[in-house]
Write a structure and sequence with these properties.
single chain; 442 residues; alpha+beta; Nuclear Transport Factor 2, Chain: A; Beta-lactamase; 2 domains; 5-stranded antiparallel β-sheet; 17 helices; globular; Beta-lactam_cat; Beta-lactam_class-A; Beta-lactam/transpept-like
């Protein structure tokens, strides 16, 4: 249910047609390699960039950097060279983000195209996962990519004008609702901001973690012992920045489900019928991950007005009885829903609130994680992000303010009720979202 963290959880299988290549190790990294026996993913990404400028790749150099099975999948050194020649040479647009085993960065390639390059490494430090996706360079290319990515796609890029009106710059089924995944947490953040404005709570109000309100990942708060105390602002930061499900559920319980449901209207959601009753993540997990499909079928058989009465029973399902699922399960009926138009209204509403006295927590939570979009902060000093996912669902939603004061929102919603998406769908969707922002800002 968390696209934000998945953007750096790169596929471990090398994708044929991705771009990779190599040459001798750059001099600036030689000393580091001598002191560090195992190169990091960042080292290997640097090597790929350098190699893109020194083709072709030798067999020895390819074997020194790419795991054998992955190298074979790409057709050896010749295949790497051919793939990279089609998209390089690469020039970094900004510093890449990396950990020991994962790296991701935006680059300018051939014909001034923008490319997202991701690298994963194994225990040996050799490349085991490598993927490159091109950013659409026009609205026509963007539409074609959306149709390729998913059988159901809703997309729109908006510019927010005077009075907070979301004007569609370009869209595809912009007013068609789709399942949101964790992007529903925007409404929880809105409910918290409303409670703060009314003086019911403050961003510094404390709340202990309760075992009964814990959920499953994404997130980390489920690992904290009961009684651990955080402020509501900290819960909001966890909920938005790493899509912490336990944080979201604690806020829903603290604020009340009715308050979050009311927030759907306050933040302009015109497609909220499927959002009632508003589920916690634990309740959704119980419906889809414990006794499925019988429990889910019983819930869906209830008239909608009676489903709220079933929620305490879902809360009682032990987390130990919930198991992950790999294929889509009832994504059109057990989820949270909105259209791109609703996401623009929500982000615009939150943007308005963030500017009010006493509401710094809204912007702080939404600014921590840029969702991998990698926009130049000189050109885009403000970037907000919230995404979401589960099998068969990917959503990405961004608000970006340009240095000239224009406010742009992009929403990408992909769904497939029959088949789970491949491991690279998040990266392809990210390239679409970034294109939406930059095409609108021209």
């Amino acid at each position: 249910m968390n696209t934000a963290t998945r953007l750096l959880a790169l596929a471990t299988a090398l994708v044929t047609g991705a771009t990779a290549c190599s040459t001798s190790v750059p001099a600036e990294h030689t000393a580091a390699r001598e002191t560090a026996a195992v190169p990091t993913a960042g080292d290997q990404l640097d090597w790929i960039v350098s190699a893109s400028r020194h083709l072709p790749i030798s067999d020895a150099d390819a074997k020194a950097h790419v795991a054998a099975s992955s190298l074979t999948a790409l057709g050896g050194a010749a295949g790497l060279s051919k793939a990279l020649a089609q998209s390089g040479p690469l020039t970094a647009q900004e510093p890449a983000k990396s950990s020991k085993t994962q790296a991701i960065g935006w680059f300018t390639g051939a014909h001034r195209s923008s490319l997202l390059v991701t690298v994963a490494t194994g225990a040996s430090g050799l490349i085991t996962g490598l993927y490159l996706t091109g950013q659409p360079g026009s609205w026509k290319e963007l539409d074609a990519e959306l149709r390729r990515l998913a059988p159901r796609a809703s997309f729109a890029t908006f510019e927010i004008g005077a009075g907070g009106r979301c004007r569609v710059v370009h869209g595809m089924h912009a007013d068609t609702p789709r399942p949101l995944g964790s992007a529903f947490k925007l409404y929880v953040l809105g409910a918290l901001s409303d409670a703060v404005a009314r003086g019911k709570v403050s961003w510094n109000t404390t709340m202990p973690i309760k075992d009964a309100w814990k959920s499953l990942p994404s997130g980390t708060l489920q690992n904290k012992p009961a009684g651990t105390t955080l402020t509501l602002g900290q819960y909001a930061d966890y909920m938005i920045s790493i899509s912490d499900n336990t944080a979201a559920d604690h806020l829903i319980h603290r604020l009340g489900r009715a308050a979050v449901e009311a927030e759907l209207t306050r933040l302009g959601n015109r497609h909220q019928r499927g959002d009632h009753p508003f589920l916690t993540t634990r309740q959704m997990f119980a419906l889809k991950g414990a006794g499925y499909p019988a429990r889910a079928d019983r819930y869906l058989a209830l008239p909608q007005r009676k489903r709220a009465a079933a929620l305490p029973g879902l809360d009682a399902v032990p987390l130990s009885q919930i198991t992950p699922w790999q294929q889509p399960r009832d994504i059109d009926s057990i989820e949270w829903f909105a259209a791109p138009t609703d996401m623009c209204a929500a982000l615009d509403g939150l943007d308005d609130r963030s500017a009010r006295p006493g509401q710094p927590g809204v912007g702080e939570a939404l600014s921590i994680n840029d969702g991998g979009i990698g926009l130049d902060r000189a050109a885009y000093p403000k970037v907000w992000f919230k995404g979401g996912s589960e099998p068969g669902v990917v959503t990405l939603n961004y608000l970006a303010r340009t240095s000239r004061g224009r406010t742009i929102v992009t929403s990408v919603m992909l769904s497939d009720p029959k088949t789970a998406f491949t491991g690279t769908i998040d990266l392809d969707a990210l390239a679409v979202a970034r294109a939406g922002v930059q095409l609108a800002a021209r």
